[in-house]
Design brief:
three-stranded antiparallel beta sheet; six-stranded parallel beta sheet; 10 helices; alpha/beta
């Protein structure tokens, strides 16, 4: 878009070509048995979640993740035949709406699992659920000592446990391996109890995807924000040119003024330059 077409002083431009290229490049890092889950929380990081979801759908994406139910419902208006995982907490009064829409919910604790189960019984449907484990980042989730409680929670009626996941703390590869082992112990406990979980995912960045996702075989799912800032990826990719920028923020200058300094000046002031050029509104361009 050229500045003359702008309807506001500030606007964002989305590079769809870069978005698609980032998606394809991310897929190239993965084993063919590993599924990529685009994360479109916060309105796809300000890029417009429904439009971004539609673009990635055309590239083959069928499972997405968001942070809230509101985000999931907004995307569902555009794409009704996709699966969406809500990784954040959904309040009890809204759980029935999520179940009716076939949206995948996250159970963080026995309490949240019970709330989802009760809502599912009320609707007469099975709720699709992923269980979240806290393996070291110290956010919401079942702890490494809560495996028995997690298994009992997974056995609540009308729950269809499709996946188990965690968030890595990204302190080091050794720490990542420890967190993976804790997650795998939870996965094994569920399977031992007859709860056969088909999705296992922990890789929430390009860096962790490169470290471990492709080695996890048919159980692996990798979460990634295709729109993450380039600076965040550089530390893991050692200067690689991926990901490409997908968004630029721009603003128009309202005026450019040339000021000719007066010949008069105070004795204590340094001599001014022959001409000063001042922008009343600085042009801002921050790339994401």
């Amino acid at each position: 878009m050229i500045p003359a077409e702008a309807t506001s002083r500030c606007w964002a431009e989305i590079n769809i070509g870069a978005l698609v290229e980032n998606y394809k490049t991310a897929l190239s890092f993965l084993d063919k048995k590993t599924t990529l889950i685009p994360v479109l929380k916060a309105n796809a990081y300000g890029c417009g979640a429904p439009y971004i979801a539609k673009t990635l759908y055309q590239q083959g994406a069928r499972l997405f993740a968001v942070a809230s139910l509101e985000e999931a419902l907004e995307i569902k208006k555009t794409l009704s035949d996709i699966d969406i995982l809500v990784m954040g907490l959904v309040s009890a009064p809204l759980i029935t709406k999520a179940i009716d829409q076939g949206i995948i919910l996250t159970a963080f604790s026995e309490k949240s699992a019970k709330e989802i189960s009760d809502a599912a019984i009320q609707t007469g449907k099975c709720a699709r659920v992923h269980f979240k484990m806290d393996t070291g980042l110290h956010r919401l989730g079942f702890g490494r000592d809560d495996l028995k409680i997690m298994v009992q929670s997974a056995l609540y009626p009308n729950l269809e446990v499709e996946g188990i996941f965690t968030h890595l703390a990204l302190r080091s590869k050794e720490e990542d391996d420890i967190q993976f082992s804790i997650l795998l112990s939870g996965w094994a406990a569920l399977n031992k109890a007859g709860i056969h979980v088909k999705m296992l995912h922990a890789c929430d960045s390009i860096g962790t995807m490169m470290r471990a996702a492709s080695a996890r075989g048919s159980t692996a799912y990798a979460r990634i924000a295709i729109l993450i800032p380039k600076s965040a990826a550089r530390s893991w990719l050692s200067g690689a040119e991926f990901p490409r920028f997908t968004r630029s923020r721009k603003a128009s200058a309202s005026a450019m003024t040339t000021i000719i300094p007066s010949k008069r000046k105070r004795a204590s002031q340094p001599s001014p330059p022959a001409m000063w050029t001042v922008s009343r509104v600085s042009i801002m361009k921050a790339m994401f």
